[in-house]
């Protein structure tokens, strides 16, 4: 029987290493059903099962088994196991949005590894600490503000994240762990980006890029180029940003990642809008539109139509812009995106004002220049419509920036979260680079919090209190998979009971966890779930906020005025 439990566990481990977590879970669960009296084997099964559920994004199940592992390792005095269980529990709590509890677990992880002089463990604990504060800061950040303009609470969390990442770097550099250095440089760059320290972000991402190339890690290289593009946008280095986005596009094609390819095209289109190279911007937005249609991403299609409309407005091609604005409105209605619908209506209203059309006009103008008139992306009637000259004029360019300004007023609605949204937020930045504008949802830093209803919160609170009583007086039935009818049951029981009586020093850890439960109402707030209208080909952050930021000095000069009205000049 004993070998059977171990054999099942080993097979589960093999399957998980091969990436088959679902089947691996079934073997681990079978091992628990068979049972064992070996506490080390049981602890390993709890740890592996918790990790498998974590990878399957079943975080409550992961939490359950990591808690079992933590309680068991503390009971038998296994400090190395307790440190590992504390780290795993902290990572799981982080992804559940329970940051204060996660911090307590990270602190315990760090304390134990320092006490036993485990440098590798210390580095992991510091990295996890950085991840928790990074995630907490990001959860506060998504309020429509630009990087560097976040609330003080977010800035404090991000500063702490940067400090822990720097401390981790010091250790992994001493240890000579280049792979770990690369991961930390990437997260550190993303943290500096959110803090608005764009030059430091560039420096960190350049180091991350160098290490990614050393390892031939194309995915990491792509993320680094994307992040460098984002940071250079805020440094007004648009040409440099475009070069990085082009490399992002090349790598996405090499990796055959069509969604990221579309995001890169979208970012390039908007970068060339900043450079006022509107014809090139149009080319990239058309490529984005093609992939969005291929992937059946209606939200992405809508955003492509919107971008194309803005580019044509800047070129003075108002009738072309009208067509794209109408398509944007159509998709916004279809997807139920009220904010985009309002934006599209305002765009149409402004365009009709410029061209002097009535609100019920139905225009299907010719396709923009530099694009194949027989493009399958366009309706047949549109492909055969006479071509317009579309010369550049100042009203068109003014209209473009006025439309952007108007849209910014509606962006807060896009950032709000619905209490009814029960979607799981993770795919994965993920490594943390879910960063704007090319969406990078990375598992650790790009962290978003699933919401829980108040009733569930009270159940968790009561459950936590009940578990703590079990921790104070360990019950043999508390550990699933522990067989009680074996020859050594009585001596084992005595050992556990004796361990449970020692509740002084280490109980501070659980006391802190219980105190955190009392402040968990803040964790129940809506903190950056993904927008319900987010499409796979659209970057996480709306790129037009970057355009508005870059053009902030010229916005007032560029506003569209109705015919016959002149703009007053300052005294």
Automatic annotation (TrEMBL):
Instruction: Give the keywords, sorted.
Output: Cell membrane, Cytoplasm, Membrane, Phosphoprotein, Repeat, TPR repeat
Q: Which SMART domains match?
A: GoLoco (SM00390), TPR (SM00028)
Any one biological process term the GO annotation gives: establishment of mitotic spindle orientation
Which terms in the GO cellular component ontology are assigned?
A: cell cortex; plasma membrane
Outline the segment boundaries, as ranges, of region: Disordered.
420-447
UniProt KW Ribosomal protein keyword: no
User: One GO molecular-function annotation for this sequence?
Assistant: G-protein alpha-subunit binding
Q: Which SUPFAM superfamilies does the entry link to?
A: TPR-like (SSF48452)
Question: Where found?
Answer: Cell membrane; Cytoplasm
Pfam families cross-referenced by the UniProt entry: GoLoco (PF02188), TPR_10 (PF13374), TPR_12 (PF13424), TPR_7 (PF13176)
Superkingdom of origin organism: Eukaryota
Q: Does the keyword Cytoplasm apply?
A: yes
| Stretches forming TPR repeats | 43-76
Which family is this protein grouped under?
Answer: Belongs to the GPSM family.
Supply the name of the protein.
G-protein-signaling modulator 2-like
